[in-house]
Amino acid sequence: MAIDWHQRARALKVRGEALIGGRRVPASSGASFACLSPIDGRELAQVAAGDAADIDAAVARSRQSFEQGVWAAQPPAARKQVLLRFADLIEGAVEELALLETLDMGKPISDALQVDVPATARCIRWYGEAIDKIYGEVAPTAPQTLALITREPMGVVGAIVPWNFPMLMAAWKIAPVLAAGNSLVLKPSEKSPLSALRLAELALEAGLPAGVFNVVPGYGHTAGRALASHPDVDAIAFTGSTATGKLVAQYAAQSNLKRVSLECGGKSPNIVMADYPDLERAAQAAAAAIFFNQGEMCSAGSRLLVQEAIREPLLERIAAIARGFAPGDPLDPATRLGALVDEPQTRRVLEFIESGRTEGAALRLGGQRVRTGSGGCYVEPTIFAAVQPSMRIAREEIFGPVLAAISFRDLDEAIRIGNDGIYGLAAAVWTRDITAAHRAARALRAGVVYVNCYDADDITVPFGGYKQSGQGRDKSLHAFDKYTELKTTWIDLA
């Protein structure tokens, strides 16, 4: 029987208190803020507005749990079992978690059910399975010495995560941090804090000791800054905008020189060569690359670079596909494009659209706010053609359903345009020429280069960027590099 998601939403009980030391608690100041749904503007909950005092409390509990060894001193196989139970509980709560995600940030319920929650559980389970399969090393030193290289947990890790994939981006931090034996303080975005708080409750239910995983909601300039600046936090992991990432790096350096990993913005080039034989497939992927999740993706294929000979037929196909992404009710399982996260982000996207018009780009589709009677935040799929690489819509991260199409003559020009910018998160090239594919993959300055696909993904491969898209990698075994210390133990056998 089909689920009535509106009825489920009305019955959902939402709590907004912080979770510190295994208990739900209000902010120490008593302050809270309204968590509003971008679907229709309804208030979902009053959420604790944590500040420096709450971060202090959370860090103290994390430090205490780490020093006592209630989690860090457990054998890897024991930590594994807790994380596997955690993943099972996430899967068991799939409908509740999907509904929280959709109500809080506006994504279609079908995407939350089929993508976000399953990927979150897979991430937790994968790192749980991995942790008892990682070995130390013995260095090839002289026979009279023995040098052991071992990994140890960092201690207390702070994580600041964004609003576009609230649960999954949190899991990319939570899973390796906990698997390695660290204690964690998580600061979710004030725009979408609800699923992170529920995840922490499920972790406790799975058997994670109280105080190991603490969640403090609040604003970036208060709770976020306090976490990044805290002298008793050993590492800070951040996902969000490049501008905020720079501030996080400054706070870390100015406090205790804590380790910093940053996954920041992107303006990814999606290059389609004229020799690619299946324009329909390329068009479908190009549309999904920018309109999935309302374009609120750091790796979105927001710059479409099209070889001149196929520019018009490809853009016509993409426009036809984009019409199927008309914004709809996120609680309707048939909806493919939901609401933008809030009113300020909606205004930002509309300002970029206006700048595209002003600078002379050709508006081929969309460009308007829609569903205005709903009380929510909806912008229709937008396509600009005749975009010049110098235009704002071609250089700055919009984080919305806005595609900038740029034409090029040959692969060298495409690579030059693709690399012209401050970002280097993702890129793609579509071609039947294997030599051209390898040339492009090597030349494009991006952390991920897709060939004849876009946004292909697996937890086994690292994700992160070059240049001002950040430093460090999420996912894969490489994530442990961020949350562990390498220790050399040198033994003289002479």
Provide an overview of this structure.
- This protein is an alpha/beta fold and 494 residues long.
- The chain has 16 helices and 22 strands.
- Helix 2 packs parallel to helix 8 (220-229), helix 3 (76-92) packs antiparallel against helix 5 and helix 5 packs parallel to helix 6.
- It starts with a helix and ends with a strand.
Gist of the model:
The protein is an alpha/beta fold and 494 residues long. 39% of the residues lie in helices and 20% in strands.
Shape: globular
Low-confidence stretches: none
What's the helical proportion of residues? 25-40%
Distance between the ends = 74 Å
Number of DSSP strands?
22
- Mean pLDDT level: 98
Secondary structural class: alpha/beta
Rg calculated over all Cα atoms: 23 Å
Strands of the biggest beta sheet: in what spatial order?
14-15-16-13-12-18-19
Question: How would a textbook summarize the main sheet?
Answer: 7 strands, mixed
Strand content: 15-25%
Number of helices: 16
Please specify the SSE layout and strand pairing.
Layout: H1 5-11, E1 18-20, E2 23-25, E3 32-36, E4 43-48, H2 52-68, H3 76-92, H4 94-105, H5 109-130, E5 137-138, E6 145-153, E7 156-160, H6 166-179, E8 183-187, H7 194-206, E9 213-215, H8 220-229, E10 235-239, H9 242-254, E11 259-263, E12 269-272, H10 279-291, E13 303-307, H11 311-322, H12 343-358, E14 362-365, E15 382-385, H13 392-395, E16 402-408, H14 411-419, E17 423-424, E18 426-430, H15 434-443, E19 448-451, E20 466-467, E21 470-471, H16 480-483, E22 484-492
Parallel strand pairs: 7-8, 7-10, 8-9, 10-11, 12-13, 12-18, 13-16, 15-16, 18-19
Antiparallel strand pairs: 1-2, 3-4, 5-6, 6-22, 11-21, 14-15, 17-20
Helix pairs in contact: 2-8, 3-5, 3-7, 4-5, 5-6, 8-9, 10-11
